[in-house]
């Protein structure tokens, strides 16, 4: 079914575009939300009359996207998350998490425009994230995920270290005792 888009619909198209979509998608999603109208001669004439206005809005969006790209490029955001000793996060960093961090730095980006590899990040490290701004305009943002050390983890780690030192001391005692008993048995053999 052919429709004319009333608004930008990601990733379908932009305002004024004529698209061929499934009937159910049009009837159940696009039409009720006012995102599209059926493709008819009457609706086509209405959009042709608005074409200049639509093109002016698209030009403004391109300009805004270029400006935002310039400011976003090279931006580095740091996110601190609880993680295990192996570097695996206890949670996940999603496009929403990144959008929230960008918002804190003054960038308003919709989460659906942020492309996170595998839909989420589950380990500490440095990642290059792409942000789709408009049409083919994308910006690259560096996201640094750091491990957050909790107090219980610090206690747990120090307890492990204490256990290790106790085990080491115990092994040394056993080795010393074994060496002493070997020396005693060798001395007894040589005395015989």
TrEMBL record:
Q: Which biological process terms from the Gene Ontology are attached to this UniProt entry?
A: translation
Residues in domain Ribosomal protein L9?
Answer: 13-40
Choose one Gene Ontology CC annotation of this protein and give it: ribonucleoprotein complex
SUPFAM superfamilies named among the record's database cross-references:
L9 N-domain-like, Ribosomal protein L9 C-domain
Sorted keywords for this record are:
Coiled coil, Ribonucleoprotein, Ribosomal protein, RNA-binding, rRNA-binding
Report the InterPro entries cross-referenced here: Ribosomal_bL9, Ribosomal_bL9/RNase_H1_N, Ribosomal_bL9_bac/chp, Ribosomal_bL9_C, Ribosomal_bL9_C_sf, Ribosomal_bL9_N, Ribosomal_bL9_N_sf
Region spans: Disordered: 150-192
In what ranges is there compositional bias, type Low complexity?
176-192
Task: Give the Gene Ontology MF terms in alphabetical order.
Answer: rRNA binding; structural constituent of ribosome
- Report whether RNA-binding shows up as a keyword of the record: yes
Look up the coiled coil feature and give its residue ranges.
44-78
Biased-composition ranges for Basic residues?
158-168
Q: What Pfam families does the entry give?
A: Ribosomal_L9_C (PF03948), Ribosomal_L9_N (PF01281)
PANTHER family linked to this entry: 50S RIBOSOMAL PROTEIN L9
UniProt family annotation? Belongs to the bacterial ribosomal protein bL9 family.
The cross-references to HAMAP family, in alphabetical order and at most eight, read: Ribosomal_bL9
Record function comment: Binds to the 23S rRNA.
This protein is called: Large ribosomal subunit protein bL9
The top of its lineage is: Bacteria, Pseudomonadati, Spirochaetota, Spirochaetia, Spirochaetales
Which gene is transcribed and translated to give this protein? Answer: rplI
């Amino acid at each position: 079914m052919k429709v004319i888009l009333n608004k930008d619909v990601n990733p379908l198209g932009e305002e004024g575009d004529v698209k061929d979509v499934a009937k159910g998608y049009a009837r159940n999603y696009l039409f009720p939300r006012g995102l599209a109208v059926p493709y008819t001669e009457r609706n086509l004439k209405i959009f042709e009359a608005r074409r200049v206005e639509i093109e002016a809005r698209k030009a403004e969006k391109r300009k805004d996207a270029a400006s935002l790209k310039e400011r976003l490029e090279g931006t580095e955001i740091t996110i601190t998350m609880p993680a295990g000793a192996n570097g695996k996060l206890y949670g996940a960093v999603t496009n929403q998490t990144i959008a929230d961090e960008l918002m804190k730095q003054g960038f308003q980006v919709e989460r659906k425009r942020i492309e996170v590899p595998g839909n989420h990040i589950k380990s500490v490290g440095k990642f290059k994230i792409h942000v789709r701004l408009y049409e083919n305009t994308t910006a690259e943002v560096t996201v640094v995920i750091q491990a957050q050390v909790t107090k219980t983890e610090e206690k747990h780690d120090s307890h492990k270290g204490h256990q290790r030192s106790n085990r080491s001391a115990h092994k040394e005692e056993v080795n010393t005792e074994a060496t002493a008993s070997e020396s005693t048995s060798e001395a007894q053999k040589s005395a015989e």
